[in-house]
Amino acid sequence: MREEKVVLVDEDDNQIGLMPKMEAHLKGKLHRAFSIIIFNSDRKILLQKRASTKYHTPNLWSNTCCSHQREGEDNINAGKRRLNEEMGFVTNLYNFSSFIYRVEFSNGLIEHENDHIMLGVFDGNPKPNPNEVDEWKWIDIDILAEDMQINPDHYTAWFMIIMNNYYESLKKWKLQ
C-alpha cells in the first residue's frame, strides 16, 4: 500500500507541493486538512473518541471526523469520502470556515494545517471504523463547551481551537 500524501499549501491555501503524510507531520509543513462537525435535528453535535491506536492524540474526544484532502479533491468530496470511511455514513456537507494552526505533540509530530471546517446534519447512529474511532456520542453544544473548559486535556487541540473561535457561529448555524 502506498503512503498517503498531503497537499502542501502556502498561507493563502495555494497548493505548493505534495509530501508523504508522516514526513509532513515530522517536519511541521503547512498542509491542507479538514474538520467535519455533524449536528442532528436536536442541534446536538456528534463527537468521536479517537482510537487508541492513532499515531497522535489517541483516546481524545474530537469533532465528528477530520482528515486530509487528496490532490485534486475539493473539500466537500474529501469530507464525504472520509466521513464514510471513518464514521460509516454520508450526508450533505457545507463549507463553513477555515483557520491555520500549529501544534507540537509529545511524540515529535507536528500538526501545521490549514483546516477547512465543514458542517452537516445527520439523524441516525454512525457505524464507525474501529481502527479510527473507539467511542462516539451526541452532545449539546453548551454542555460540550462547558466540559471543554473544565477538561481541556480530554479534547484534541484543533477541536479546542474550533470551539474557542467559532462557538457562537456554530450555535447560530442554520441546520441545512
Please give the largest β-sheet: 4 strands, mixed
Query: SSE order, as H and E?
Result: EEHEEEEHEEEHH
Supply Rg.
15 Å
Structural class: alpha+beta
Highest-level CATH class: Alpha Beta
CATH superfamily membership, which one? Nucleoside Triphosphate Pyrophosphohydrolase
The helix count comes to 4
Taking the alpha carbons of the first and last residues, their distance comes to 38 Å
| Low-pLDDT ranges | none
* Domain module count: 1
CATH topology: Nucleoside Triphosphate Pyrophosphohydrolase
Shape: globular
Helix content: 25-40%
Q: Taking all residues together, what is the mean pLDDT? A: 96
Major sheet strand order = 6-3-8-7
- Tell me the β content: 35-45%
Description of the molecule:
- By secondary structure, the chain is α+β, with helices and mostly antiparallel strands.
- The protein has a single domain, classed as Alpha-Beta Complex (Nucleoside Triphosphate Pyrophosphohydrolase).
- It is 26% helix and 36% strand.
- It has 4 helices and 9 strands; from the N terminus they run ββαββββαβββαα.
- The strands form 3 sheets. The protein has a 4-stranded mixed sheet with strand order 6-3-8-7, sandwiched between helices. It has a 3-stranded antiparallel sheet with strand order 5-4-9. It has a two-stranded antiparallel ribbon with strand order 1-2.
- β7 and β8 form a beta hairpin.
- The longest helix is centred in the last third of the chain and has 16 residues, at 157-172.
- The model has no long low-confidence stretch (mean pLDDT 96).
